[in-house]
């Protein structure tokens, strides 16, 4: 009985760690793409827009720092799951998509619009860019959530696997 | 060269004299020699001191000296971007390289046992515990930068030699404390949990990024807008590059510490 209890806790920790690892990595990679593609390559985003609010500056700073850490931390968690044979790749991808979409939606609604950090592009019909940006974000979140939902009941076979390995 | 002549720049600021440059560079030159002698002596007595650590130390010292003496340091007084490059070297890159050189480990294995005990007693002391606490070190590091760039301190630093010396020593020491409070290369008797260090690190990095953007929009008094923008971006991206190395080492140390150990069989 003691052993079963331990196995269950271990499995649920691994299950949520798969989600967290994916989520952190997804969030980080979204911020990374934002920085390299939209800031550096396309130069659509501005480094600092004079209409940015103070809270926008703080939110941007915290998010940037967190995502920088999350990319690397998420990958180390991924490596940790692999060496424990606990990686569940579909669930991990679910986390990645929710993280990516979550960052993009937060960036596209609260940071760009509410806090006015910067706009997607400095053109007249920015609303079209905003719509595409945020609809894509919602799609990513929905696909990610469905993957997480599909993999939620995998505990049973996993537990059996781990018993076989013992 | 022209330390006592008070040669004026076009914008009216004094060139930094030879004397402050020497005073700032001297401790680093001394540290280089002490480290090299210790590496040779201790390699004779024990197994060879790793070459890559010595190389890290040499480059760390080199970047610190570039920041405080020579062309970059001289330009820093008229050019804010050069100043920022110097501060990236002095406050981030040099401390990181020097922390990777494990100077305390080298010191402890070179000194005689009684003296080494004295040093390790010092490391275990309360003040040392306070200063190497990640939150305190971050506050000294990032707080000091906010003070420098958002008050009159920056203008004062360019006028007074004493303030110039104090600010530069502070930038280096706070940067070094910050680095060793986050990643453990040398023995650290006051270790803190990984998650705590991760959270403090993210807040410190955010404080650094926010200040960079603030400088971009509101450069310190006497700094032209264009230089302020360049300096702010240099601080932002340069800081990111160096911090990514610290994050990588911090996560790697977590990865090693949490490696799965063979689980004991539980008998019922």
List the helices and strands and how they pair.
The complex is a heterodimer of chains A (166) and B (268).
Chain A: H1 2-41, H2 54-83, H3 89-114, H4 126-150, H5 155-165
Helix pairs in contact in A: 1-2, 1-3, 1-5, 3-4
Chain B: H1 18-45, H2 51-68, H3 71-75, H4 80-100, H5 103-110, H6 113-124, H7 126-131, H8 134-150, H9 153-157, H10 161-182, H11 194-217, H12 225-257
* Tally of separate helices of chain A: 5
Shape of chain B: globular
State the distance separating the first and last CA atoms of chain B. 82 Å
Number of domains of chain B: 1
Low-pLDDT parts of chain B are 1-13
Write down the secondary-structure element order of chain A: HHHHH
Which structural class matches the secondary elements of chain B?
A: mainly alpha
Q: Kindly provide the radius of gyration of chain B, computed on alpha-carbon positions and rounded to a whole number of angstroms.
A: 21 Å
Number of H- or I-type helical stretches of chain B: 12
Strand content of chain A: under 5%
Approximate helicity band of chain B: over 70%
Biggest interface: A-B, 24 and 32 residues
- The amount of beta strand of chain B, in percent, is under 5%
First-to-last CA distance of chain A: 15 Å
Q: Assembly state here? A: heterodimer
* Strand/helix succession of chain B: HHHHHHHHHHHH
Helix content estimate of chain A: over 70%
Q: What's the pLDDT, averaged over the residues of chain A?
A: 77
* Uncertain residue segments of chain A: 1-7, 156-166
Structural class of chain A: mainly alpha
User: How many strands, which pairing sense, and closed or not: the largest β-sheet of chain B?
Assistant: none
